[in-house]
Amino acid sequence: MAETHYKVRVESDHIKKLANAKPIPALAELIWNAADADASRIDVEIESNDFGMQAITVRDNGHGIPHDKVEDLFGKLGGSWKAHGNRSKTKSRILHGKEGKGRFKALALGRVADWTVIYRQDDKLLRYTITILREDLVDVRVSEPAEVDRTLKPGVEVRITELDRSYRSLEPDQALHSLAQIFALYLTDYSDIAVYVEHQRVDPSTLIASRQTLPLAPIVEDGVSYTAALELIEWTSASERWVFLCGEEGFPFHRISPNFHVPGAQFSAYLKSPFISELQKRGILELGEMNGPLQAAYEEAEGKIKLFFRNREVEAARSEIEQWKADEIYPYRDEPTTAVERAERKVFEIVALNVNNHLPEFSDANRKTKAFQLRMLRQAIERGPDELQLILKEVLDLPERKQQELAKLLEEADLANVISASKLVSDRMKFVHGLEALLFDPDSKKLLKERSQLHRMLAENNTWVFGEQFNLTVDDQSLTEVLRKHRKLIGEDTVIDTPVKRIDGKTGIVDLMLSRSVPRNHADEREHLVVELKRPTVKVGADEITQVEKYAYTVADDERFRHLKTRWTFWVISNDLDGFAQVKTRQKDKPKGQISQTDDGRVEVWVKTWSEIIAECKARMHFVQQHLQANVDKESSLKYLKKTYDKYLSGVVEVDQDTVSEPADA
């Protein structure tokens, strides 16, 4: 059969660039050509054998290509018949391509591309072939037309052979979704066309979860204004995220992977504008990131996309949180009233909603389990990033990336410190107010015991009452143990073998011993505070003062520590002082409360009242409270003490059990 050769009149490197397209865009171009030819059905078939993918065929039932138009269509770029009109010949579809570039993209898939064309001329059906080889892209080989049986139908079959490799992206399980993204707008606008991949229909409508049109500002270049809009499609299943740059009609010319992150969203975005068509004509669309007006439109579209999904998340989150409240498993009862509480609440909700979204077993759990886990999350947030990450990992088994992301939420902007400090101050204020009520209430102070109740509450991490600088080191041990503890601070070479006896010969017992390092010139200098607690009903008098002085002098006189660089401060504390004690606390040339001091200043003995201690605590807490806006009242303070120290306060204070067990404080 005679054959005609047409030389493509364009630079060969430009054609080679077209022939280097990626598989899905290359296949899409062949489908667009079929759609522009008014095809009602387009089939993509993949031929494979044991050696892999062998050929790709795209077949359509369009009007074909008249033989006398081949030179115009294949002999040059930019001279397509489509360039002279915006719509197809018979069905008036809006045209996709107008420059004849698409056909050369077939060579991106394989070495040889063959077109078999059947078209109608007068009352005859004619067939001919077109062949292009990748190594000689400018040489288009066209056979002469020959008449064929009239039972055949017009159309074009493009067969690409000698493939470079097997294309995983062209397998139906992947290609269907990728092509649905590209043709989503077109196939939903034109119901008279169907595309099949290996007999499976490309049907975007079954994959689209929602479709939104968002307005954009006009694109302006050199004083010319171009309309712009954003079409956003959400998919029902996981898919690659793409932003397609489209002409005004929504035909994608170029796709780019978004450089912004929208967690959990499955979408395709279509930036539509005649300005994009103009850049496509100029051949510079693929360099769009260097075009200022287009880049500005893209950034606006990015902002609209992120805002859309952020609002969607807020909507879903609000619904979920309201459901938790309705189910009475939300771990906060009252609305936040301070900036710190609002920040803490916001962090909690973000973490809880992420756990709910990423762990099906959490969202499917029963009410009791959910309530427990939400309370646990609240407490973890109050304690800081380390505690939160432990809960997310060890208890909830959240994915590591999500663990780090949520824990980092507390690290940023010192939010963890603010929340933890707020919780700490709030709890301490409750403790102080509750302690005051216990010590001075006429009924409870008669029942409160200094060693088994008052002592134990203070020993449980509440020694800050005596000063922020102190840490509990010894609790209710003999003076021998006090000295042994002291030895650990001074040096292990100090020998302690026998019990330390008080001046009266008995082994001494101290209630609390607190220690702190004093910032002086020598690292081995230490200071200790020893506290002797008295029952609130006991007035401090001569006997109590004598007892604490015996403790003090015993330590001062012990030969093992007599010459060590240590200061000792001894307190005896109760609600009130008798006449003798009041005189002793008001001695000339001594500060109020100090009753004795050794000549070298190493040992001091003081008498303090609880009112003084509590007043000092309130002053410290009030300063921080003003900054953290903590809010505490007497009722909540007593509830706090009752719940936290119930094992020590049984029978001393009783509060409404309904309020004690409320979920907000569980």
Describe, in short, the structure shown:
With about 675 residues, the chain is α+β, with helices and mostly antiparallel strands.
Account of the 3D structure:
Strands 1, 2, 3, 4, 5, 6, 7, 8, 9 and 10 form a 10-stranded mixed beta sheet that branches. Strands 18-19-20-22-25-24 form a 6-stranded mixed beta sheet. A 5-stranded mixed beta sheet has the order 11-14-17-15-16, sandwiched between helices. It is an alpha+beta fold and 666 residues long. β9 (194-197) and β10 (200-201) form a beta hairpin. The protein is built from 21 helices and 25 strands. The radius of gyration is 42 Å and the shape is rod-shaped. It folds into 4 domains: 3-201, Heat Shock Protein 90, CATH 3.30.565; 207-311, no CATH class; 314-422, no CATH class; 443-619, 3-Layer(aba) Sandwich (Trna Endonuclease, Chain: A, domain 1), CATH 3.40.1350. α9 packs antiparallel against α10, α10 runs antiparallel to α11 and α12 (415-440) crosses α19 (634-644). The N and C termini lie far apart (90 Å).
Question: What is the topological layout?
Answer:
Blueprint: E1 3-7, H1 12-18, H2 23-36, E2 41-49, E3 52-60, H3 70-74, E4 110-121, E5 124-133, E6 136-143, E7 146-147, E8 155-163, H4 172-189, E9 194-197, E10 200-201, E11 208-215, E12 219-221, E13 224-226, E14 229-235, E15 242-246, E16 252-256, E17 267-272, H5 274-282, H6 292-326, H7 339-358, H8 360-363, H9 367-383, H10 385-395, H11 400-411, H12 415-440, H13 444-447, H14 450-459, E18 471-475, H15 479-490, E19 512-517, E20 526-533, E21 539-540, H16 542-557, E22 566-574, E23 576-577, H17 579-584, E24 594-597, E25 603-609, H18 610-628, H19 634-644, H20 646-649, H21 657-660
